[in-house]
Specification:
Blueprint lengths: L2 H7 L9 H11 L8 E8 L11 E3 L3 E4 L4 E6 L2 E6 L2 E4 L11 H9 L29 E3 L4 E5 L6 E3 L7 E6 L6 E6 L5 E3 L12 E6 L6 E7 L7 H11 L2 H14 L5 E2 L1
Parallel strand pairs: 5-15, 7-9, 8-14
Antiparallel strand pairs: 1-2, 1-4, 3-6, 4-5, 9-12, 10-11, 10-13, 13-14
Helix pairs in contact: 2-3
């Protein structure tokens, strides 16, 4: 039985209940929506980072004063804004509607329409540059990334690999017993079901992963979410609270990619 084929054939079965999240995303980015009453900091670097920590919420009438080398990414009703200091910025200005991104973001959150990642070019084709694909779903476990990983459905966890042009395997090590479980991907398939029967997905569980095409192993620490995030705002806040920084970075990068606005410079 090929679980990965089953997963690709019926992606809606991977993450049950995420129609709710998709609806929240559409409401968030729909024209005239007021779903996000506050703006949330999702990334902050520079000398003023302590004043604008990840998770900080501000009203639409708030102003942000930044110093040189400050960079703050704000999740707003219409997408993301990247503010670069020095300068003072008003959150009431500079935002534009991002309804064109709503479909892509809904797909990213619930995997609807994202049945496989895209490389952009076939490896070995000298006439085209190879583009490393991005993880197409926030809840897919990237075999190359370690750290805390938030899980909403422990029975439906999926492992994703960025390079799927050939067949590959990954070894999953249980640190306490040292037992090793292997999973295998067929050529052209980026997804594989986590072996939940051999390796239960429980809160606080830690496993070490080493993919056959990955230079070094990574340690993953599972964080089980008691409730599913209701919308994009709730998702970002939950990832920040639980310390799932890898997924938060992926969320921010995906939002930035869907946001056509350039960074606001002071």
């Amino acid at each position: 039985m090929h679980l990965d084929k089953h997963i690709l054939a019926r992606p809606g079965k991977i993450l049950p209940g995420f129609a709710k999240a998709a609806l929240g995303t559409v409401l968030l980015f729909g024209a005239g929506s007021a779903a996000l009453a506050q703006n949330m900091v999702v990334r902050s670097t520079g000398p003023s980072a302590s004043a604008y920590p990840a998770g900080k919420k501000m009203g639409n009438d708030a102003k942000i004063t930044l110093k040189a080398q400050d960079k703050v990414t704000i999740l707003t009703r219409s997408g993301t804004r990247v503010l670069s200091g020095p300068g003072t910025f008003s959150l009431a200005q500079g935002s534009s509607t991002a309804s064109s991104a709503s479909t892509r973001l809904s797909s990213f959150i619930n995997n609807r329409g994202s049945r496989r990642a895209r490389t952009g070019a076939v490896r070995g084709d000298s006439s085209a540059a190879v583009v490393t694909p991005s993880n197409p779903n926030l809840w897919f476990l990237d075999v190359t990334k370690g750290g805390k990983f938030c899980v909403t459905d422990p029975k439906g966890l999926v492992v994703w690999r960025p390079d799927y042009t050939g067949s590959a395997t990954a070894s999953i090590v249980e640190p306490t017993s040292g037992n090793v479980t292997e999973i295998a991907w067929r050529k052209g398939n980026p997804l594989k079901a986590w072996p939940k029967d051999e390796l239960p997905v429980t809160d606080g569980a830690s496993y070490r992963l080493l993919g056959s095409s990955v230079p070094q192993s990574v340690e993953v620490n599972f964080v089980l979410l008691e409730t599913e995030p209701a919308d994009l705002d709730d998702t970002a806040a939950m990832l920040i609270e639980k310390g799932c920084t890898g997924q938060l970075d992926l969320l921010v990068e995906t939002l930035n990619a869907n946001n056509k606005e350039t960074a606001d410079q002071g």
